TrEMBL record:
It comes from Trujillonella endophytica. Keywords: Acyltransferase, Transferase. The active site is at C89, H337, C367. It comes from the Bacteria. Residues 258-379 form the Thiolase C-terminal domain. GO terms for molecular function: acetyl-CoA C-acyltransferase activity. This is Acetyl-CoA acyltransferase. Belongs to the thiolase-like superfamily. Thiolase family. SUPFAM superfamilies: Thiolase-like (SSF53901). The keyword Transferase applies. CDD domains: thiolase (cd00751).
Amino acid sequence: MRDAVIVEAVRAPVGRRKGGLSGVHPADLSAHVLRSLVERAGVDPALVEDVIWGCVGQVGEQTFDIGRTAALAAGWPETVTGVTIDRQCGSSQQSIHFAAAGLVAGQYDVVVAGGVESMSRVPMGTSLMDRDPFGEAFMARYGTFPNQGVGAEMIAEKWGITRGQCDEFSVASHEKAAAARADGRFAAQIAPVTLPDGTVVSEDEGIRPGTTTEVLGGLKTVFKPEGGVITAGNSSQISDGSAALLMMTGEKARELGLTPLARVHTAVLAGADPVMMLTAPIPATEKALKRSGLSLDEIGAFEVNEAFAPVPLAWLADVGADAKALNPLGGAIALGHPLGGSGARIATTLLHHMRDNGIRYGLQTMCEGGGQANATIFELL
């Protein structure tokens, strides 16, 4: 029976907006990650049959099928194809799902899944170009232009999540990420980027050691001036980044003499209210557990993207997972959220954490535009 295994997972450091990676073209950043991926795995890139690449802002420097451009920019053979996909924030997690499905179906033997977003160079919302993306029928059904920040406020109100809880969660994210960085726990997953002037960007730039609830408490709310909870301090950071996973069948890995990190055990999707938008990780997690046949307590680590603090807090409240197993190395509030690259970044972090700690099963999920969510369960091999 065909399966889908991951033999290597690599990411660039996550750069802050206008930070160390802002001068790097997103195709070049993608190419750097692709080269690092096959070099670390010791695999000839000619074996790769496709690059499935997530990217949300497919405009300007990120248009013209950046998945294909990245493979060519990496110096890979022209026989290696590439495709670019958009499931909003879950784009590169969806690329993992598509890659796994292609492997199991026999469409591929070796494939790369990943993604990129340079939010410094292609700011969020650039692709709208002052146009309406929804049309008359959608607006007649829902009556409003969905806004993720407003959706996060709606979640906070529905689940009774306070500003203090959001800020406490954010402080914990920075503390966990800072501790992980200090302990060198990100080193094996990061491919440092050397800039033209010789500067080396080797660490995630958004982590703020020493962040306190007092500091965060002084920030103004963004989407709801009176009685709101969402601030810049308890939201994901605008970032630049890229990540990639080298995937193949277990049979192909054995043929090449490679030892897989993990296999894709279960991959599902869920949809929910597109106006509140950010709640679908809850039904996606429930669906993944049901389809996998695994119980909640069999999952040793969870990654729930920290788009806004109420998202993982509501997820915790409904799913009932152990809070200590959630985002153990910090999340997007501290590390950053390079949209189309985040799903693969999260997977890379999760897989390395599973390997480092002998965790058999790990689950990742993330909210996505349109009220959607991917959920993926990996099994350590």
